[in-house]
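My hope is that you will study the record closing this message with an eye to the fold:
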Amino acid sequence: MSDHLDYIGSVGIIGAGWLGLPLSLTLQEKGVKVVASATNLDSEDKLKQRGLNTCRLNLPDIDNTCSLLQCQHLVICIPPGIRYGKSDYVAKISAIVDQVELEQCAVQSITLLSSTAVYNGLFGEVTEDSVLNLQGAKVDIMHQAEQAILTSKCTNKAVLRLGGLMGYDRQPGRFFNNGKVIPNPESVINFIHRDDVIGIICQLLVSFQNNVSLKNPTNIFNCVAPHHPTRRNFYQKALSSLGMPMASFSDQEESDGKLVNSKFIGYLQYQFKYADIMACLESSS
């Protein structure tokens, strides 16, 4: 992929947090015009200090005067917030879609960053066309939000189901550095480095801009490193790289863990920077 992507036009980033901010900066460094959302004056000032164009946005309130909607591509990076008791995730995504579908809207593609947590309740290998278990409230909410994107009238659309995010200050060993017991040690992990998520998004935007067929009838991409070590091996390595004591593991309770694979990520012709997720633990420590 070229170091210069100015030809893909402009990109609006909704949610400039741990992932959205470095995505915005990466695109800007590659010559792309970027508009990043901010929820308040303080966050807006911080984004401007990084040289980014900003737009104040507090979803689900959004109208056609929002400069994000003048961009050619939209990438939605906001978390569902379900663990914090929020229940407006579907309303937020639907509000964006409603504006994108207006005739005067300039947006040509919309990408939602979702999560492999949508596969909760499933076991064994899962891919983009696995039937979801909608019994869980979290899965149902995420599914509804995804469907708002996938059934929209926008010509180019995609849902990226991200595995566990790691890299830089987010080293998974820190999840268990307080003596917590790690469950299901023989089940595998489904992680991805932040650099690879950003690389996949950039490649997807290139495909959209060039009208390249995604060869994906679902418009869903599982974004997970192809290497799936066991939780035991992974967290032992993660803690060791931090100089932390070895972890304690509980008995294996799952008869069959969950392994997230992708049937379609190869069509984007993206080469993983961190295909071996164990190898990048040192750089994340």
Q: What stands out?
A: The mean pLDDT is 93. Residues 194-209 form the longest helix (16 residues). The CA atoms of residues 37 and 43 lie 9 Å apart.
